[in-house]
Design brief:
Pathway: Metabolic intermediate metabolism; (R)-mevalonate degradation; (S)-3-hydroxy-3-methylglutaryl-CoA from (R)-mevalonate: step 1/1. Helices cover 49% and strands 18% of the residues. It is of the alpha+beta class. The protein folds into four domains: 8-52, no CATH class; 65-110 and 236-388, 3-hydroxy-3-methylglutaryl-coenzyme A Reductase, Chain A, domain 2, CATH 3.90.770; 114-228, Alpha-Beta Plaits (2-Layer Sandwich); 394-438, no CATH class. The strands form three sheets. It has a four-stranded antiparallel beta sheet with strand order 3-8-10-9. It has a four-stranded antiparallel beta sheet with strand order 5-6-4-7. The chain has a two-stranded antiparallel sheet with strand order 1-2. The structure holds 3-hydroxy-3-methylglutaryl-coenzyme A and 1,4-dihydronicotinamide adenine dinucleotide. 3-hydroxy-3-methylglutaryl-coenzyme A binds at residues 85, 87-91, 93-94, 97, 278-279, 281-282, 285, 380-381, 384-385, 390, 393-394, 396-397.
Length: 439
């Protein structure tokens, strides 16, 4: 049977499912049952989810957890986290609790500028002439976007500037309109892209009538108009600090030794890309989970953050740590273009709930919360890595997943949870213990 189809997008949801199960599954009924099991009984709610994307066949659940006890600039928060990986929420919660008693997290939004570019080809050899044309047309570029920018300007945002950039050193004939924007509480992708497409239209039209251009020069080719997800000027800083002597909770490691090893671990991630990638993955455990829970675009955040981590030519740690005058400081500055309006934020009921849980933050406040979740996660991971090792805590949290894989019943679960309080969790140890129990 052929495994391709034309016109799939035009089929109804049930016809799409029929084609999928008939084409790809041996047990068609079982496949259909799983897909239908995840539908919501509330038809309106299901339709809302069906319409978020295209060719929807069912819902894909991720758990929504919460990490309480975050103190950020003196304000308490419970942070929502949507994530599939065990131990992330526990780690965030543990770090929150630890820093709650040590002054909490201090954060600051450094800047909020977003970027968009019109990429174009100009076939002339006189850059000055192109610059002259750009200077003459710049007011019109802005004027022609009035209908798009009116409301954003009324709120205090809009287009900040447009520059002409010469990129011919890299590609023959390649130039850019490099524009900066303030999009306030919106992530801004649609706003920026609409402005850019209008710039491109006006720029091309005006060039065709610019008297100083030759016939060839008049023919500007627009390649594309798109925002950039690299936003090094949409930056937030999150920090924790305390006296070194306050760093520990138990006697297993001295505070000085803890601080030294912790800083060594950060220094290694600063200079060693193999470690930096894993180190930053741990930071993104926290960041992505809050970004997802608040309905933001995690691909945009991921791309922008990793580009920032490579900004000095080598992939490096996003966090830094030091001890100065007996004070331990651990901090991070990262770019986060987030929205609390637009996109899914006003549509998905759980996203609305997550934002309400956070006290309906502005985009700037959300930047600070998300950065804190990343810093907390990294603190928890580094603390485990440099003391007990990661597996102890991680596997303790992962135990339930292994028990579920083994189809453990409630009795078996409680017996084995008790057993593994004093025994090391590994996959084989759990399987062995469950087999023993069932004999
Ligand atoms: C896992 C813990 C927290 C255990 O830590 P613990 O000390 O065994 O936990 P505890 O049972 O003593 O509880 C202390 C607190 O931890 C939290 N906590 C504890 N258990 C739970 C739970 N079940 N549900 C919710 N919260 C939990 C909670 O805040 C709790 O306080 P309480 O609520 O009791 O007042 C610790 O070992 C830890 O932080 N480990 C780090 C885990 C981690 O980073 N996981 C991420 C996945 S690994 C990875 O992807 C990234 C990595 C590590 O590769 C990055 C890198 O290399 O840098
Ligand atoms: N490369 C990328 O990152 C791309 C991302 N996207 C998607 O675009 C979406 C985000 O685009 P947006 O323009 O942010 O969303 P959106 O198109 O839903 O619009 C947000 C709009 O809300 C209005 N608004 C109301 N109150 C506001 C306030 N206080 N501050 C600012 N604006 C306010 C403004 O008109 C603003 O343009 C996301 O779903 C993202 O996945 C789309 C294309 C490319």
């Amino acid at each position: 049977m052929t495994k391709t189809i034309s016109g799939f997008s035009k089929l109804s949801k049930s016809k799409k499912i029929d084609w999928i199960v008939n084409t790809y599954f041996s047990n068609k009924e079982a496949a259909k049952t799983i897909l239908e099991q995840y539908w919501n009984n509330d038809k309106k709610l299901q339709q809302l989810h069906d319409e978020f994307i295209e060719n929807t066949i069912t819902n894909y659940y991720l758990p929504l957890g919460v990490a309480p006890n975050f103190l950020i600039n003196g304000k308490p928060y419970t942070i929502p986290m949507a994530i599939e990986e065990s131990s992330v929420v526990a780690a965030a919660s543990k770090a929150a609790k630890f820093w709650f008693d040590r002054g909490g997290f201090k954060t600051k939004v450094i800047s909020t500028t977003k970027i968009g570019q019109v990429h174009f080809m100009y076939h002339g050899d006189d850059f000055n002439k192109l610059q002259e044309f750009f200077n003459s047309v710049k007011p019109k570029l802005i004027e022609d976007t009035t209908s798009i920018t009116k409301n954003m300007e009324a709120r205090g945002g809009g287009i900040l500037d447009i520059e002409l950039r010469d990129k011919t050193q890299s590609i023959n004939g390649y130039y850019q309109l490099h524009a900066t924007f303030e999009t306030l509480d919106a992530m801004g992708a649609n706003f920026i892209n609409s402005c850019l497409e209008q710039f491109a239209k006006t720029f091309k039209n005006e060039a065709s009538n610019f008297n100083l251009f030759s016939v060839e020069e008049k023919h500007i080719e627009i390649v594309m108009s798109i925002l950039s997800n690299y936003v090094p000027d949409c930056l937030v800083r999150a920090e924790v600090n305390c006296k070194v002597e306050d760093l520990t909770e138990n006697d297993s490691v001295s505070p000085e030794e803890f601080a030294t090893k912790f800083i060594q671990a950060v220094n290694i991630a600063e200079i060693e890309p193999y470690r930096a990638v894993t180190h930053n993955k741990g930071i993104m455990n926290g960041i992505d989970a809050v970004v997802l829970a608040t309905g933001n675009d995690f691909r945009a955040i991921e791309a922008g953050v990793h580009a920032y981590a490579s900004r000095n030519g080598s992939y490096s740690s996003l966090t830094h740590a030091k001890v100065e005058n007996g004070v331990f400081t651990f901090w991070m500055e990262i770019p986060l273009a987030l929205g609390t309006v637009g996109g899914l934020t006003g549509l998905h009921p759980l996203v609305k709930l997550a934002l309400e849980l956070l006290g309906k933050p502005s985009a700037k406040e959300l930047m600070q919360i998300v950065a804190v979740a990343g810093l907390a996660q990294n603190f928890a991971a580094l603390r485990s890595l440099t003391t007990t090792g990661i597996q102890e805590g991680h596997m303790k949290m992962h135990l339930m997943n292994i028990l579920n894989q083994c189809n453990a019943n409630d009795n078996e679960k409680s017996t084995l949870i008790e057993h593994f309080k004093t025994n090391t969790v590994t996959h084989s140890a759990v399987v062995e213990a469950i087999e023993k129990l069932r004999k």
